[in-house]
Design goal:
The complex is a heterotrimer of chains A (102), B (625) and C (183). Chain B has 625 residues and is mainly alpha-helical. Helix content of chain B is 74%, strand content 3%. In chain B, helix 13 (277-298) packs parallel to helix 19. The termini of chain C are far apart. Classes of the chains: A mainly alpha (102), B mainly alpha (625), C mainly alpha (183).
Chain lengths: 102, 625, 183
């Protein structure tokens, strides 16, 4: 095949994953956190697709489609939570939710 | 004979247990009857043992009976065994007989008290303990009985536990007895180490194997126990305080039986004492010193029971004197007569106290002769017996006791002089007490507070034992008359052969001088207290403070102990023990505090933890493969 | 380094490079913007560039689904919510204990380094050989057949997950019976 090796795609996927992780760790707004989570999921998806191409099997692509469906569901629930929080006039700040503080 | 001996031992224990377990289901009077009956059973059993023993030839009168092997540890074995021999049956009869009379008397005396059941349970326990002591077949049983009588004494002295003085007196008695127990235990340790057993027949026959040091130590240890139990110098301070207990308790424990246990010990272990002659002479010396000191203190006492208590101390001094010089049978004879007339005196005093609504101060009494005539006669008989006037019992026993001292050399003669002075003092203080209480015009207090005793069960139970004891105190002395008729000496000879015997001349001289001195003492007492023709000399503070023994012991033992205790508390217990616990608790709390800071409550921190752990784990997997 | 410079190759490489850079750049943009609206738009860019990468990897159906479902539906929902909430701004690297930001960077960096090390050095050449594929690789027909034969269970369960999410979304979004208490 022509073009970059699978390894390059995997590198991009790793980068995406770590970027998403960083975003989850440093942002305070739950909306941005959800977006960062999406990035992480997409990184994983890219890795899956790359491996599917490398193996010659479409299993990876099937898995990626399932991941996409689950990501969509999760976004639904997450956004529903955020809307509920906003409705109760809570601060949309992850740091403010600390009743579990010991 | 053997079953009778076991019944004699265990009947009072059975009563004590039954009264304890029955609790409120038993009426108070019934508890009294139960206790009295059990001691009567004991007495009957003792008589049966005695009768059987009489049937044995004199050289075969030693019967041991083992119930079971109590302790076995390697080569050492200690059994629960009793001994039926002349000496033990002698004591069994006295303990059970006098005990029966006194427990019967208690039914009337303690009538109306809220805790009568507890009293009778304790009395039954005491009789059992004393019987165990005298019937014990080895030194361990003797020690067990020794400790138990100490316990019963503590329980009964502090019977009226609402009174702080009673509690303090009980503690004092117990602590001083414990000192004696400790020295005795040490002596027994030496014996176990040397002989490997505590059985009488082994220990008494192998005294030769003890070196001088060991023999002296053993005898000293036993003497320590005897001195503590019998309230002799230097452990005598507990006996006057023990008068806080009810009068029957004073009669039974602190006159007739427990305090004589020391004398019994010396007579029983005479082989061990004879192996340490200096210690034996020390015992005699202590007895003589005690009898003088107690006699002097009794002259200034104002409480009727305390006069009798010091009198007890003094008379036991006489018994120690005799036993210390080797006149064992004479000491036991005096023990018997003393049990009779001392118990009689206490019980008569008890009737007086009851009639005067628990007043015990002699200064408030007077003229009771008119109010309590029969009690007066009983008291008079007891006083005459105590002083040693013929033909009453004390005359025979006391003189036969002092006479052998003359035969012992210069030391014995010195003690004889002390004993004679004691006779004078005895006459003086005894009749001082009698004249103050019974003679003269009835005092205002008596006129106001006297109430006669009822004629019912209470009255009978108070009167009959006193009557029986009066007869005994009067006539029991006739059982041994000098060297003419000596059943007691003959009876006890196989067990405790005497070391000294007085000649006829010594006996006669002793008797005459003693009676003369006694009559002089009575005369002086009459002069001062009855006829009021003389002034009583001013009392020395030395006598008032009982020779300052209490103060001495307080400074010597009590203060340092308290000082040490408070010091330890302040410098060791509080900082170290409490402090370490407190520090431990604080440290744990601090640790919890620190750990708490992990729970920040921030979601981001938790996610970070997950991410970081993931990074670390990945490295591990990559490296390890 | 595998830099075969054939003529057809060059195009592939260029496309790959552009798509990769767009991917990475938009990823960083998502986490860097303080305004959530811009973050969401960056994410849409990210998804688009990912679709391009999928095409390069012969995953046509997935690329299509990505654009339609992800970029088309999910992101639109995101934008709806952001619009509803007013898009409050919040600066990155802010808030929390001071050590947290540093540790976050360290952890992510460590992860990245580790994965790169693994896929390049440790894989010892196992990742370099690509399989030969035919032209219908990644086509809807192939995907569809696999979904309905080998991976039927996954298909069904995914449907149920979507159903549950839908129900959950309705419940979360509905007004409660009692009026909510003002905090």
């Amino acid at each position: 095949m022509n073009g970059p090796d699978v390894v390059w795609y995997l590198a991009v996927a790793a980068f995406l994953f770590c970027t998403g992780a960083l975003g989850v760790l440093i942002r305070r707004s739950p909306l941005i956190v959800l977006l960062s989570l999406e990035i992480m999921l997409n990184g994983a998806n890219l890795a899956l697709i790359a491996f599917a191409r490398q193996q010659g099997h479409e299993d990876g692509q099937i898995f990626a489609l399932a991941v996409m469906a689950v990501a969509a569901s999760e976004v639904v629930v997450g956004l529903g939570l955020i809307v509920a929080m906003a409705r109760r006039r809570l601060d949309l700040d992850v740091d403010k939710l600390r009743t579990l503080r010991g | 004979m053997i079953p009778a001996a076991w019944i004699c031992l265990f009947a009072p224990l059975g009563a004590a247990i039954a009264i304890t377990l029955a609790g409120n289901r038993l009426s108070r009077r019934a508890a009294g009857y139960l206790a009295t009956t059990s001691v009567l059973v004991s007495f009957v059993a003792a008589v049966v043992s005695f009768a059987f023993l009489l049937g044995d030839p004199p050289d075969n009168r030693e019967h041991y009976s083992t119930l079971w092997h109590w302790l076995t540890a390697g080569p050492y074995q200690f059994d629960l065994r009793i001994l039926v021999d002349p000496l033990s049956t002698f004591m069994m009869l006295i303990v059970a007989g006098v005990g029966f009379l006194i427990v019967w008397y208690s039914i009337g005396y303690m009538d109306g008290d809220d805790e009568e059941r507890r009293y009778f349970a304790y009395m039954a326990l005491f009789v059992f303990s004393m019987l165990l002591l005298v019937q014990g077949g080895n030194l361990l049983m003797l020690l067990a009985g020794w400790g138990l009588v100490g316990l019963s004494s503590y329980l009964l002295i502090g019977f009226w536990h609402e009174r702080p003085t009673a509690i303090a007196a009980a503690k004092k008695a117990f602590v001083m007895n414990a000192i004696g127990d400790a020295t005795m235990a040490l002596a027994l340790f030496i014996l176990i180490q040397r002989d490997g057993t505590l059985n009488f027949e082994v220990v008494f026959s192998r005294t030769g194997s003890l070196g001088t040091w060991a023999a002296n130590l053993v005898a000293l240890g036993l003497l320590g126990g005897a001195v503590a139990k019998s309230a002799q110098l230097p452990l005598q301070t507990w006996l006057p305080d023990a008068m806080e207990g009810p009068t029957p308790v004073s009669a039974l424990i602190h006159a007739a039986t427990m305090v004589t246990a020391g004398v019994y010990l010396i007579v029983r272990t005479n082989a061990l004492f004879e192996a340490a002659p200096h210690v034996q002479e020390l015992a005699a010396g202590l007895g003589a010193a005690t009898l003088l000191m107690a006699g002097l203190i009794a002259l200034v006492q104002t409480d009727i029971k305390r006069v009798i208590a010091y009198s007890t101390m003094s008379q036991i001094g006489y018994m120690f004197l005799a036993a210390g010089l080797g006149a064992y049978a004479d000491a036991m004879f005096h023990l018997m007569t003393h049990a009779f007339f001392k118990a009689l005196l206490f019980m008569a005093a008890g009737i007086v106290i009851h009639a005067l609504a628990d007043e015990q101060d002699l200064r408030k009494m007077g003229g009771l002769r008119q109010y309590l005539p029969k009690t007066y006669w009983a008291f008079l008989v007891g006083a005459l017996a105590l002083t040693g006037i013929p033909p009453f019992s004390g005359f025979f026993s006391k003189d036969s006791l002092l006479a052998p001292a003359l035969a012992h050399g210069w030391y014995g003669q010195l003690l004889w002089v002390a004993g004679m002075v004691g006779v004078f003092l005895t006459g003086l203080y005894t009749f001082r007490m009698l004249f103050l209480a019974f003679w003269g015009e009835p005092s205002p207090f008596v006129q106001e507070h006297f109430h006669a005793l009822k004629r019912d069960v209470v009255g009978v139970s108070l009167a009959v034992p006193v009557g029986v004891l009066t007869v005994l105190a009067a006539f029991a002395g006739w059982i041994q008359v000098y060297n003419f008729w000596t059943p007691i000496s003959n009876w006890l000879d196989p067990v405790a052969p005497p070391l000294v015997t007085a000649s006829g001349l010594q006996e006669a001289a002793t008797s005459v001088i003693a009676v003369a001195l006694a009559l002089t003492g009575i005369g002086v007492a009459w002069w001062i207290y009855a006829a009021r023709r003389g002034e009583a000399p001013r009392t020395l503070p030395l006598l008032q403070h009982k020779f300052y023994f209490d103060e001495l012991y307080d400074a010597l033992f009590y203060r340092p102990a308290v000082f040490l205790a408070t010091g330890l508390y302040r410098w060791v217990e509080r900082p170290l023990v409490f402090g370490s616990l407190r520090e431990l608790a604080a440290a744990v709390r601090e640790l919890g505090f620190e750990t708490r800071s992990i729970q920040t409550g921030l979601v981001r921190t938790y996610v970070l933890a997950i991410a970081a752990s993931l990074a670390v784990i990945t490295i591990v997997f990559v490296v390890v493969r | 380094m595998i830099l075969a410079a054939d003529a057809g190759n060059v195009l592939v490489w260029v496309v790959w490079f552009v798509a990769a850079c767009a991917c990475l750049g938009s990823g960083i943009a998502v986490i860097s913007f303080s305004n959530p609206f811009f973050s969401a738009l960056s994410l849409i860019g990210n998804l688009a560039s990912l679709a391009a990468l999928y095409l390069l990897l012969s995953a046509e159906f997935v690329a299509a689904a990505q654009v339609l479902v992800y970029a088309g539906a999910v992101m639109v929902m995101f934008l709806f919510v952001i619009a509803y909430l007013g898009g409050r701004a919040d600066a990155p690297w802010a808030g929390g204990p001071s050590w947290q930001a540093f540790a976050a960077g360290a952890a992510s960096g460590a992860l990245l380094v580790e994965v790169l090390v693994v896929i390049s050095l440790k894989s010892s050449g196992r990742l370099t050989h690509e399989a030969n594929i035919d032209s219908s690789f990644g086509s809807p027909a192939r995907i569809g057949r696999l979904f309905l034969t080998d991976h039927l269970l996954a298909f069904e369960i995914t449907s149920i997950v979507l159903l549950v999410a839908a129900v959950g979304g309705v419940i979360l979004g509905s007004h409660s019976r009692n009026p909510s208490v003002d905090r």
